[in-house]
Amino acid sequence: MVERYALEPLKSHWTLESQYKRWLEVELAVIRAYEELKVAPKGTYERAKKNSYLNVEEILETEKVVDHDVIAFIKVTTSKMGDESRYFHFGLTSSDVVDTANSLALLRATRYIYAELENLHEVLLKKAFEYKKLPTIGRTHGVHAEPTSFGLKYLSWAAEIERNIERLKNAMDEISVGKLSGAVGNYANIDPEVEKLALSYLSLKPVKVATQVIPRDIHANLINVFALIASAIERIAVEIRHLQKTETLEVQEPFKKGQRGSSAMPHKKNPILCERLTGMSRVIRSYVNSALENIVLWHERDISHSSVERYMFPDITMTLFYMIKKATYLIENLTVFEDNVVKNIDKTKGLVYSQRVLLKLVEKGYTREEAYKEVQKIALKCWENKSSFKNEVKNYFKFSQEEIDEIFNPEYYLRNIDVIYERFK
To answer: Name one GO molecular function term (predicted).
Structure first.
């Protein structure tokens, strides 16, 4: 955990104390199931719950001796119990507890992420409609292409977040599983009904087939969705970074009173938040390979996945939560220099209207090949001479002023965007 990026409530969610509480939650659910099935005497669950003893320091000290965190947890937690301790961890293996508790941890952490993602989606949609009618230059390969709507940038981002919300919803459903089926997953020492009941108390369902562990493709899918969300945020951040370049200056990320951009150059306002989000996205994507590697374990299970997940689960959820919160702040407080947005359309002195000229010539009887060659010839001349493409076109092709005004009108490029926006109502 990097303290700098650890936000509540996820910071507390991943403490050792919280982990042990989840383990206890699983153990008590099993005892409750045993009692309901009349395997354990009436009152066993309440006594176990009342007399369970969680002390992080004592568990860690015990672990130094037994070299096994779950055994240390069991020894300390049951140390103040009476006869009810007989049913604590009865028929279970360590992975029953750890894997089921990890499902709880991931599911609960993801719910926080999901809520923030929905909020980001709403903010993006609001901005998309706010800037719907603002014409801007579209760029392909980093080069001016044709005018478009500035709001469509936001709408494209919102659509991607919308897809990721749906992906996350499906991944949350898939991760809502536990396993309480014993050492190799075949219920040799525990009744399947115990698992079914215990997991129902935790709002989980049994995984269809387990070994000693829940199959790790389930976790890998969730991690992959996290990476897709992070990449969506990075796409936003990179676009803003490009648009904040001094030569472009169409937007600027929030710059607080008293903030400083450079230790050497007092004039600097750098896109540090966007760059931070870009870097964090790389970290999150790096976990995808780790999650995929965890799928392949020896036979019914080895322990190679365990150390990876101790890093991965807390780090990836806390980092993504931070990213979404900051991305929402970024979008809400982004400065858009509308005058520059419009002014930059004409930076090439009208060259971005070349396709409109081409199509107008085709309407007048030119073949497409003839029109393309003629327009390109004039366009390249204007590029080299830095002259007005609009004037050259008017003089060369003898267009009327009305035709010229129609061709070189950025509003033309917004005429069909309502069709796109209608999909988001």
So the answer is: (S)-2-(5-amino-1-(5-phospho-D-ribosyl)imidazole-4-carboxamido) succinate lyase (fumarate-forming) activity
